[in-house]
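Quick one, T. Sequence first:
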Amino acid sequence: MNLIEKANKLLGRWVKEHSTLPLPENYPNDVLRCIADVIDDAKEEVESLGLDPYDDFKEMTENVESDLIKCLLDHEDFLEALTSTYLTGSRYSNDEEVRILAARIMSCAMNGIDSNAYFKEVGEDMIDLLYQWSLADREPLKSYAVEILSYGEILCSRYHQNNVELVSKLLQQLREMYGKAKVEYNAAHPKTSNTEFAPWREDTQDAVCTSTKEDTPNKAGGVSADKNPLLRRELVGRRNFEEFRCQAVLHFLLSLGEYQEFLGLIMKNSILKLLLNYISITDINSPVIFSIIRYLSALLCHKKFASEFMTYDGLQLLLDLPFNQRALTGISTCFYALVFHSTVMERLCSYSNHLVTPIMSICLQQLRGKYESGRSYVRLFLTCGFYYQTIIEEFDKQCGLPVFLELLKKSVEALKDPPSIEVEVFLLRQKVKQMCNALRQYLAGHTILYADHLRRVKDQQGVGMSPQIHTNTKALELEDRVKTAYEYIQANADFDCIWKSIDDVHRQGGFETLIQAFFINETFRSKGYDASPCIITALTFLTILPRYQLKLTDQFTSPDGESHTVIKLILSAAESYGNIEIQRSALSLIVVVVCGPYRANTNTMSLNLTPAPHPRRTSSDDVMHKMWSAIRTNNGIKVLMSLLLTKTPLVHADELRMAACKALNGLCRSRGVRQIASKLHLMSSGQLLALMREPVLPENAETHSKFCTYTRSLLEVLFGVSTDKSTSEPSPINKMTKVDIVSKTPINFNKDEIYHLLHSTLLEHGLKNAANALVDEVKQKLDKDIALYPKTSGPQVPSTSHLMSPVTPCKKLVIRNARSRVSSSNDLDSITCSTPNTPACRPTTSKVPQKSFAVKNHLEALEARTTSKAYQPPSLNDLVHNFMRDQHMQCEHPMSIVPDFSLFRDHKCPDPHPELYEAPVNIVSRHQRRCYGVPYGGINGRFRDYKFMFSKFKPYYTLRVDSRNSEEWEDIDFTSCLTFSNYIVAGCNNGQIRVYKMMDHPPYYCVQTTDNSDVEPITSLSLSNSARMMVSSSTAEAELDRQPNNACTLWSIRPSSSSSSESSNQDVLERRHVIERVDHATFSHLSDDLLLATMAEHKCCLVDCYTGKTISVLANPPGSDGYHKNHAVFNFTDDLVLNDGVLWDYRAMFPIYKFDKFNNIVSGVFTPAGIEIIINTEIWDMRTFKLLNTINSLDNCLLKYNHSRDIMYGLSHVKQEIHDHEISPSYKHVMGPFESTFKTFAANSGYPSLGTYDAGRQIIDLNFCRRDELVVTVESTNEEFTSMWTGGSVVKLYKVGRSKATREDDDEDDDDVEDEDDDEDDDDESVGDLEDDGITSSSPLSTPEGTPPQNSNSPQVNTSSPAFTDYSTTLDDISLSDGEMNEEMSGSSDDSPDDDDNDDEEERTTQSSLNFSLMSDSDEDGTQGVIVVPRNRTSSSKSSG
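Structure tokens:
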């Protein structure tokens, strides 16, 4: 029978005896004694197992004692009787044995009770009784009461006076117990009986006390069973009661050891000497010695005790103890307590061989020990101990690094397959975090030591400044010096330098182990104990040297099987909102890898400087280029740009901005990144400049000052514009644009003019022979005669065949300071002239421009050599280039393409064209000017025509669910729409496609997309180029528990086979193929052969429309952008595919290029011109893959082209969909939902905005007819939009180019009842409206039954229709300057009051008594023009476009 069964049997016996009347004899003594004996047996069994003495988690889950205690605690009646009846009850107040047995059981059960809750429940009577027993001299009840009170931490403040009295009593008792133990020790060791613990001898009081105890009986009730019958074995058990007494006293003192109010009393009794003497005479295997060392470690937390401990050589005493695993665990807690006192540690480090060596030996032994608590305290000791050089050196001397890394690797491997017990998982994660933190401190200490080593080497070579003097015993000040240290190492260490500690970590697999730990930590991060900051900081130190940075681009497999690069994980951590420690560590690593030394600059300087003593290796440049490329590939520019605008967390926002700006400074040294960054809206619009005005929090002014410094440097790198250091107000943004244009202008001039200047200068200084020699030399070189100027006030150009005509005297050349001209204009991509607009390319200013941090070191080297013989002045060619750039800078409207410059003629770029050639704002005036041969009525005329037509939309027809058949249409809503011929096609949330005839409310017919019972909503409909095929896409909601059934269905549109005359020629839908696991599909543009389907995991596939088979699958490479609403698209020549930000040549199955990601939603579309790609606001050049421009009005818009491909419709995704952490999983693979407005843009250069129309309801889908005359939308009728699939929706048609007759119609349209009235009015007036709009019987919308719709291989515009002008050509036909287009775009904003007046003027004109019909005509330049012919209007009608 095991102990648990015995305990249950005894509890059953107690229940039986407790409920029996009269009570049995010897009740409850016998049963309590048996239960206490069972607990003692459990304790002996646990002690034999050798469990960790500090590991409370395992003690409470894996041993017999804890199970036994739980068994007792589960019996609430027994526990209640134990407290209220046997201990404090009046029935047994005179029965000492019952109280002793009850107290004995209770002292053991306290280990499993919530002591704070217990002492709150028992009341003050119980607590007062326990204090009364503790202060009395009745054993063993006194010791049991002390043991129970030792668990009452809540009693320290409430019973302060009782505790003071009790502590004095217990200290006296502890001294008496030591006296007796000393007598026994002297008797057992006669040769050492007179030797006290060094370095002092016991005082007289101790000796008297000891001698007294040898002759006088014990006052505490006696210590033997003969003198005290209550100490007999039946009451106290088989265990040594003297050891229990000592442990109970030490346990109580331990509970108060960290409280300041008891320290005076403890110091007065010289407790430290007593404990050290007690340790010196106690057997190492005794359980008392562990209690003494544990109490000693609590006292060492106080600086006074720690100093006395070192004075008394207490550390040496602990180190001399025989090795015992349990005692060493307690000694490790003493090490941990001492490491927090800097003075103690400095004193310890001064005894390197005497103390540090055995301490490190014990620590390494404990790391291999069996007790996890001992290993934990050693890890914590090393974490703090690595602040001291002596500890680091001793750790390396005893080969501690391999042991440490091996243990870390085993812990990480154990977490890959975590145990089922949550407590064990918690301990494993805590262990990994402690080891990563210790490794971080170790690497930080070595970084400072190696930087000091490099300084000493430089000082010995006579280069650099003298190193800081640092003694081995002082702390290294890691937080203050480590940043400066790794920056110094990067700037001065060679590529192949030897750094032993870092090399050893890489050689032993420490880098790979940290990566695996990072993967696992990301899995458990939400559960606390986040070790990511420690891991990332350790990786930062491991990648300081360039040769190790390439490891950040390696692929590592996470525990879930996915492959990631390290740099991608770091960038993800940098934008992990809400965890500042992770963001700070990740940004530090990014700064290290992108702001390292770029050594290619030294050889590209225009000044021929003497090379440095240690030339930079080109291999470091290769590493830097690869790191820049890796940052770009993993969307690092987007991450850093978003951090520049962060305002959360509020306290650390300025710090994050400063770090991100510093990283951008280093990253923009890359030519490609520099080109992209200069075009982004944040930089080019002046938004970054506004951030310099004030910090997020005023108390972060110092951090904001650093941010302003990095921002000025960044602006210099990007635009060549410097700012005044004394103020944070930067130069205006228009100056940046101007300097950017000037810097990109190629400088070309006739070099013969330099010879003229040289000859004239020689003559002015009387050097005739040199001038004649120059003439002879030039004649020989050119093989022709050169006529030179006579000496006048200025040089005159002779009228020869190869020289210019005479001009006015030339301006004086400005010789610049050498410091402001450090780069050559011939190498605009070097680091010191990292963009074409560098200091060498900037105009002369009254102040020397501020230098960017990238060229600061080189400028200092230049200053140091200005007085040496090796210095050479700037070349004449550079001076001439700077002079001409200054002339170009003086132009009010500089151009990037200009004629050749001249030294004898002022340069001036032409001013913009006068407004005389601008097209009138009024449409009548524009078309009247076309009658006189002016193309489109003037410059920007085509754009104004577009704006007039596509800025106005009139609600025309509304289609709702039929309320007359509510049962059939219940819970059915429209989710997508399409219109062709005279039909409206609407997709529904039940998987049906409903086809309506135009102006006929009941559905013509319905079809089901699939035969499966689980149907998904129709999220999109697309028509083929020939209008003979259609594809529908169905997407499931992600939150559904069932397996999603995403698919697309391919339909044929064919004439009906019905024999009736009315329906024989009507079109019907016939299902051809169903492609599974597809989210969205679209047809190719030039034919109906191919279907491009977007799949999950950022893949797409090409499907043969005739066979339904998959031709090929395009899977993006690892590290793709991962847009939430990715939809693959063809270009307009059907030879390229854009999928998830990656450009593919699907014919060769080869990815061409991956575009940088700057948003999370929109994946991008091609432009009709075929040379550009629009991804959100960014316009990319497909030929050079450069960022051409950013248009902020396109932000977050899904773009759709009309059928003539000259107008873009933009639907804005709802605002809460923008961020990764806010997007609903239901909408990640569907187009919508969208805001209640849609925008129109001209699909040409500049993509100017034409207008914005507010539909008043959230839009779910939008499409247009093939003649671009109507726009059809699906709009939600639910005011509180919660889902795309429920809540009600309608299909609505709008007329293009028509305005509402009254503004009240907008308000009426929002009301359902009034909407129905409007629909009836629309039905009555539909025929008249169509005639007024010029839609005749030949229009597809009014095709009579029996007439097949028109089909063609490419979309065509019906130019014969009198309601529409010919706007199929683009605005590129008109040559516009940048200033004109910007002026036109700024003047065409819908929010501008002037434009509102212009629109009103246009509308008033069109609603006047004259009605205009537009007739096609041919202009002089051969383009299709329109002539406006006025005619009288015979009857009133609605306003016309």
